[in-house]
Amino acid sequence: MSLQTSKQSFSKRALASLIGPDGYDFWAREFGTTAAWQRCFARVLCVERNGCNSLSIHLRPNKNFAGFQAGQHINVTAEIEGRRLTRSYSLSNTANSAMNLEITVRHDPQGKMSGHLHTAIKVGSVLEISQAFGGMSLPSGPECENPALLLAAGSGISPLMGLLRQRCETKTCPPTTLLYWDYDDAHFCFKDELNQLCANNPQLHVHRLTTRSAAQADGRISEEQIKQLHGDCRDTMVYACGGSDFVEAARALLSTQARDFTAEAFTPPATTANSEVQQQIAIQLNRSGRTITVSNQESLLDALEAQGIAVESGCRMGICNTCSCQKLQGSTTNQFSGEQNNATNSSIRLCISRANGPLQLDL
């Protein structure tokens, strides 16, 4: 350890002993440094346009970041209009990228975080991130040599680009087909790199399909397209990522015939119908001492936010667990699966849970 590093570590320990790790990290964020005590901060190294309304943002995380596997996600947190917002983004690079991270963000006109990242983030900016999570990853060992079919729709290209890059990092890229749907030619990301990867790897085949192109629309995912462009999937590992409709269509076509089927959606599935008569339910928030009234027809996260109660959240579809909360008493329903949770002292995800009756939450 150099003398300078030793002095920095001593200063860090001395400061943390005075203001605590949380206070240290708060002021680290305020001063725009990544030298946090326990949180993961990352500095923006590069911002580049990727497709007509997407940006690829390259980040250098601090030493608190524990690493990742290609295809996983991170949560990104930023203060926007006085509120801390958190959203999940897939990593599109591989773990061999010298611990840099790459996320590709499509601008959603209704999305505050994507708007913030597109307009306010510059080289040198510091973002708070989470540890990586998610199970969209390639197998290890001999199974990684199996043929793979990657199905991407729109922003779903991000995690699949990580998997594809990882397969191309091997000495000989195993047989791999990428079918990539987007509105039109202008929206496709990673164009030049995909062309170069195909030129360097004879067993890699990339097909771009448009859904709204005025010149030629190829249509949405279908059995005919897959048969024509890839063929039989019985010995194939299939990975699919896109909106929930796309993922469910891919699942219906391939989950029973593929060797393995792994899928993630970046939009929530349709909620199950709530046959209960609409009613207002009392929710007791034990830590704040407040009691509020919410509808049994909406998610607890939406209900809390509508009443001005800020709750940390991320994906808003039950994946990242950022909004997990201890339910002390009462019953909830998972509004996507319809599963009920009647257990006391159990963890629930506020974004996908709605109340069946009076609740006590550890908030």
TrEMBL record:
Tell me the cofactors it needs.
[2Fe-2S] cluster
Annotated 2Fe-2S ferredoxin-type domain residues: 279-363
> Where does the record place the FAD-binding FR-type domain?
37-139
The signal peptide annotation in the UniProt record is none
Which protein, by its recorded name, is this? Answer: Flavin reductase family protein
Q: Which organism is it from?
A: Zhongshania arctica
